[in-house]
Specification:
Chain B: It catalyses: L-glutamyl-tRNA(Gln) + L-glutamine + ATP + H2O = L-glutaminyl-tRNA(Gln) + L-glutamate + ADP + phosphate + H(+). The complex is a heterodimer. By secondary structure, chain A is an alpha+beta fold. Helix content of chain A is about 30%, strand content about 5%. Chain B has a nine-stranded mixed beta sheet. In chain B, strands 6-5-16 form a three-stranded antiparallel beta sheet, with no helix packed on it. Classes of the chains: A alpha+beta, B alpha+beta. Chains A and B meet through helix 1, strand 1, helix 3 and strand 3 of A and strand 2, helix 1, strand 9, strand 10 and strand 17 of B.
Chain lengths: ~110, ~500
Amino acid sequence: QKVSVEVLDHLEHLALVDFRDSEGVERLHKAIQFADQLCEVNTDGVEPMDSVLEDRWCLYLREDDVTEGNCTKELLENAREKVEEYFVAPPGNIPLPKLEERETFLQSS
Amino acid sequence: AARRGCALWRRAGRPALGPFPRGRSAVACNVGGGAVPAGKSGLAPWIPVVGLEIHAQISSNTKLFSGSQVQFAAPPNSLVSFFDASLPGTLPVLNRRCVEAAVMTGLALNCSINKKSLFDRKHYFYADLPAGYQITQQRVPIAVNGSLSYSLCIDNKMSQMVTKTVRIKQIQLEQDSGKSLHDDTRSQTLVDLNRAGVGLMEVVMEPDMCCGEEAAAAVRELQLILQTLGSSQAVMAEGQLRVDANVSVHHPGEPYGVRTEVKNINSIRFLAKAIDYEIQRQIEELENGGTILNETRAFDSKLGCTVPMRDKEGKQDYRFMPEPNLPPLILYDAKSLPANMNHQQVINIDWIHERLPDLPSVKREKLVEQYGILPEHSFTLLNEDGLAEFFESVVKQTQMKPKKVIGWILNDLLSYLKQHSLTVKESPVSSFLLAGLLNLLEKKEISSTAAKQVLAELWKGEGKTPLEIVKEQKLELLQDQKELEQICQAVIDGQENEVIMMLLE
């Protein structure tokens, strides 16, 4: 079963992944095929597993004491642009243009 | 990308409608049963349906998954750890206090606490969400199936109150995002991550409400409960309590209509306005043959209307997945308490339940029972921060019956404070002074008119005692029978003509 162009386009919008060419799409199909093997196992009446530790470990709980923060300078070193002590970002999300308006190999599929 | 109700949000385009649409259809919430408003003549009535999604910031020293401090209005990006900034190689570590806050809140709202709850990732891109996902509890939240009771006045009369209940679908723990400041002139967004990662409790209410007034009353009661528990300070103005309303209308007997989500509501008063406006807008639209879009709208408080929020992205797909870095959250009760575990790592639901403070509804009942005041009085006492304590303090210090004291508290004290925008804590008249004044009145040393005069003088806060003011202004009541007779006789003697005229009439 092939994944439709609409779904591939939807994935590119959601995850900002670029399938780039037919090889990329084929890799996706192989990955789905590989994961589909899970469906061969009968899991009727079996609860999904959240953690290999099952009931043995509960999540570590931290005390409510201040131990971090106060490193504005270090954090801002990573920023390409900054204004005073703010990170600078574009005015809003710049969505991927629609399929028809993009130069992507998906168009020709 | 998800559009959230950030107070600094900028709107696209002009509002579609001006303030309140003309020719309003009457929407009266039928307090007895559901809402069955009267439509325009000849048209079927409409039933509005209102559900709320409330985000309450947890009152804690540090964030949900990191040890950064939680504080309002700190220098930008000063309360941000490497994890909050989503730098690679960092991991979430759950804050015990946040879990306790959620359990307390769940118990106070009559929820079932899930002894095992899970964390998930909700993915979307936005500049103030550095990881590209929010850690939340989508599959199995910490608390489910609760209820919240609240009271409403019928017809604006305080004397007739009715109790309503709204079902709580669930309460979940999740991360807050950072803050975006939009700079339109330079076409950029400034991002401050101080708030990113702060713990939130999302309280999801079922659509059991039918109008703005009900929603406002429910939120007000929730606010009081959270403040009593201390799990959240719930101050809407500081963004500690954010409310989004889901609104739709339909005809009786028909399926629910398309709903819109209303965001950017900054006060309880605006919540009622926004919901009522949206109900009217939808009714008008439908009665004029239009349709309702499943969209997100922002409330414009200046214009008093809701406007569409630009959303080029279409329907959101959050691609939920289990948070791989966090195993399930296990809570215990007295029965299931493990024997050999470090008690700092154990949260006992029963232990928390035993230590819950009296909720507002219980406090009100106690006030009514103990002091013989009316239920509506107890509402006003609890509605004003510190007023109930002030009242009880005065009652302790005076012989005057609580039923009489309450009048002085609610009519005189409260109206003065409101007039001068003062809180109870800022009152120039202390409970000691007021009690002293009421004692003079009770002992019949002054009349009630004189008492009001003394009170007016006490407001000046010049440090004089009631007794000093009474002496200064010679307001003492004469108790001597003979002296009173002499004065009366003198008055009659001096006004013989008027007395004769009176007797002849």
